[in-house]
Amino acid sequence: MRIPNWPRRGSASTLFPTPTLASSRCAQKPTFRSICSVGSASLRAYTSPRRTGRAALSNEFAPPGRTNEILLDESGAALIEAALILPVLLLLILGAADISLYLWNAELAAKAVQLGLRKAIVSDAIASGPGLDRAESETYWNGLPPGLRCAPADHGPCPSFAVTCTLAGPCSCRGDACRFSPAPSRAGPILAAMRAILPGISTRNVEVTYRTNGLGYVGRPVPVPVDVTLRLVGYEYSPVFLGGLLGAALPLRASATLPSEDLTSQ
Fold this sequence. Notes:
This protein is of the alpha+beta class. The chain has 8 helices and 7 strands. It has helices at 12-15, 19-26, 33-47, 53-61, 69-72, 77-120, 188-195, 243-246; strands at 127-128, 162-166, 171-173, 181-182, 206-212, 226-237, 250-259. Strands 3-2-5-6-7 form a 5-stranded antiparallel beta sheet, with helices on one face. The protein is rod-shaped and about 105 Å long. The termini are far apart.
């Protein structure tokens, strides 16, 4: 067997053979190819710059014959980030839109209540009873001295009452002397004024309260001065975008109070 012509012992080429020298000798005989392959790998490891960070970890912990290409591959990262962020972004945008629509409808509800109240204080009362109807108020003053002031409202000499009715009826009031009945036929002007702003309002969504306020005097012609309070009840806003997520409609509430001006059209 022919012995390869290796360099002398102790020479620099022996310790650190150049790639050209190693490749030429490895090509001489097939017997030395395995040895030369190990030497070439050692030479590359020695002469290549030291790797740090992720590259070093990938080479150190990679299984034999494979690399951590899947773990280190960053292609498609933007798509994954978009898939994570997009639902949250859409939730914020659609939620802001629904909140804006809810606030808009709340303002419409407040305006509808204002217009309905303005109509209620100059229209026939939707409750019929003593102090509100002339036909039922013959004994309202019950022999009190004419001209006596009614103030204060709750402890004055004049009769006091507070009656609440919906436009569809019925009416309710406190005390055993409650003798009021609903008059839903008088609710048309109030409902028409409110539907000009909120077309979806029904007679069940409007509640009107008549309460004596201490103004006036004994013997004043009926109807007596009262405070009129109009409330929007049972009216809801259904979210357009997030209705399924919220699971329920959002209530719209509004109320306003004004003193009566003329509760009779006769």
